[in-house]
Each structure stands twice: as structure tokens, then as C-alpha cells.
Design goal:
By secondary structure, this protein is mainly alpha-helical. Helices cover about 70% and strands about 10% of the residues.
Length: about 160
């Protein structure tokens, strides 16, 4: 709040001292010097409010830092998972090719080849889902940093 207005002044100029014939001034300031401790209480309340605001700021800052760190870790984990599942898809694909060749030679049953195809499709599906998880984790990171913008989503 703004400071209080100045106290009212009363002055009488031109008062003449009849004994010494001096001209002087008289001033009266009307303001209460002691307000029953209310001034001190207001100052203490303001100090408490400032300290509470600092505490809230510090707490929020810690929460944001933690949220960003968690989002970063989630993104890194999603990337590692994607690499793992992509490599697994390649391995299952190689096995499927090998099973098909053996089937032509009569060393594998049709059931083995079909199971290999199902495994390959599942591995591909998991790898694609992991790729989507990378994008979701990246958006969460941008959100945690306060940088998520509509232009980012349009690209």
C-alpha cells in the first residue's frame, strides 16, 4: 500500500514576542506516535508475508526442477527402450528369415514359422509404441520446462 498521508500541520506566522520584540513561528504536528503496537504488528505481518512468499517460491522452484528432471529421465528411458526394441525386432526378423529358409528345406514346421511371424509382428508393434513414447516423453519435458507451444505440436 502507499505510504500514509503526512500529518496535518497548523502554523501561526508572525507571532511577536512582546518582551524581546522577536518574530517567530509556531507549529503543531498532530500524529500519534504510539498506536498501541499496531505499527509494529503491521511490520511483523509484512515480514511474515514476505517470508511465506519466499518459501512458496522456493518450494515451487524445487517442484519444477524435480518435474523437469523426471521428464528428462523418462525421455532418456524411452530412447533406451526404443533402441532395445528396435534391435530386438531386427533379431526376431532374422530368426523369421532363418525359420522360413529351414521350412523350405523341411527342417521346420509351419507352426514354427507362424509363431516366428507373430513374434516379429509383436516386436515391430512394441518398437513403434516405444517410438511414440519418445515423442510423448519429449512433449512432457517441454511442458515441464514451460516451453510447450502450439508451433511445436504443428511440426
Amino acid at each position: 500500500p502507499p505510504p500514509p498521508p503526512p500529518p496535518p500541520f497548523q502554523a501561526q506566522d508572525g507571532i511577536r514576542d512582546t518582551r524581546t520584540c522577536l518574530v517567530g513561528s509556531e507549529m503543531c504536528i498532530r500524529d500519534s506516535i504510539y498506536n498501541g503496537g499496531s505499527d509494529k504488528a503491521r511490520v511483523e505481518a509484512s515480514i511474515r508475508e514476505i517470508n511465506e512468499a519466499r518459501d512458496r517460491y522456493s518450494e515451487r522452484r524445487k517442484l519444477v526442477e524435480e518435474e523437469v528432471a523426471n521428464a528428462w529421465q523418462e525421455m532418456e528411458t524411452a530412447r533406451e527402450r526404443y533402441v532395445y526394441l528396435r534391435d530386438q525386432t531386427a533379431i526376431v526378423g532374422e530368426f523369421l528369415d532363418f525359420a522360413r529358409k529351414e521350412r523350405k528345406l523341411g527342417k521346420r514346421s509351419l507352426l514354427d514359422v507362424l509363431a516366428g511371424e507373430a513374434d516379429h509382428l509383436n516386436a515391430q508393434s512394441n518398437a513403434v509404441a516405444a517410438g511414440v513414447d519418445i515423442h510423448v516423453a519429449t512433449y512432457r519435458l517441454f511442458h515441464a520446462m514451460g516451453k510447450l507451444d502450439i508451433d511445436l505440436l504443428v511440426q
